[in-house]
Amino acid sequence: MQVYSEKQQIITAIAALRAQNQLIGLVPTMGALHQGHLALVERALENNDYVVVSIFVNPTQFDNSTDLEKYPRTLKKDVALLSMLSKDNIIAYAPTVDDVYEGNTVSEKFDFDGLEFEMEGRFRHGHFDGVGTIVKRLFEITTPQNAYFGEKDFQQLLIIKKLVEKHHIPVNIVGCPIYREKTGLAMSSRNTRLKPEYLEASPFIYNTLKTAKKLFGTKSAGKVSEWVEDQFSKQNLLELEYFIIADTETLKPVKRKSKKKAYRAFIAAYADDIRLIDNIALN
Ligand code: PAF
User: Fold this and answer.
1) Ligand 1 mean position to 263 CA, how many Å?
2) Domain boundary among 122, 150, 176
């Protein structure tokens, strides 16, 4: 499997493939690959001739230096996992910070029509400018026709769609379902850092979301939120940062339910110092 660490090399390789009318899919990742990433890559392999998997822990999207420092980096293992899916049709791009940022590791400023100020945007300052900056650069470098993102980061998915629309980037964004552990915990590279007692407690998040979905059938968003907050207060390992029921298009918290709209419930919670997020479609 070809692994590039310099953007000029991968730009040349992709230009040659595009000259032969090959379809390129992109799966952007921060590495520490798990089954959820591999499911995205498999989906991309079905619909493209070549799949570029970028592996890059992007510093500008972290507002917490400890989280950035502790983020797992397992490039050798990642490449071995990808090789098991395909040796010939996957291209890995694992650049250095300098290769991507050319000595100026700062974010561009974006206007995502307000999506950036909801949920994650309120708790992780500058996060979506960092995500927008790296994803836009990856699109420029790898010029994919299709790009794949998981729904675990649902807000990120909407923001990438907005980025593409506003900047007229010719790429089709494909959202893919959340991949879960058998326990229901949404897969995340950060899960490897969970201590056993927190790992054991973590299915509580998805179980709570599932019950919230049932309750939302008959109760108001406010009542469901009160119930969720109460459930979290009754256990002592997971600390709720937010529970929000939001409109799936605008991500604005729902005030009054409308049958014409689609809603999703979102949770962010701390398991010790590890921040976990999850969400569920409600209707
Ligand atoms: O979802 C992620 O892993 C990251 O935010 C992404 C899209 C790879 C950008 O760094």
Assistant:
1) 24
2) 176
- 118: domain CATH number is 3.40.50.620
Q: Is 168 a catalytic residue?
A: no
Let me know whether 165 and 206 are in one domain: no
Find the domain containing 123 and state its range: 2-176
20 is in an annotated binding site: no
Do residue 17 and residue 150 come from a single domain?
A: yes
Nearest CA to ligand 1 atom 3: 29
The pLDDT tens digits for 100-117 are 999 999 999 999 999 999
Distance from Cα 29 to the centre of ligand 1, integer Å: 5
Catalytic residue among 37, 125, 127, 168: 37
The model's pTM: 0.97
Annotated binding residue at 260?
no
Q: Is 28 in the pocket of ligand 1 (CB under 6 A)?
A: yes
What pLDDT does residue 71 have?
95
Query: Tell me, what CATH number does 220's domain have?
Result: 3.30.1300.10
Note the pLDDT of residue 205: 98
| Residue 153 is labelled as binding a ligand | yes
Dihedral sign for Cα 120, 279, 158, 23, please.
positive
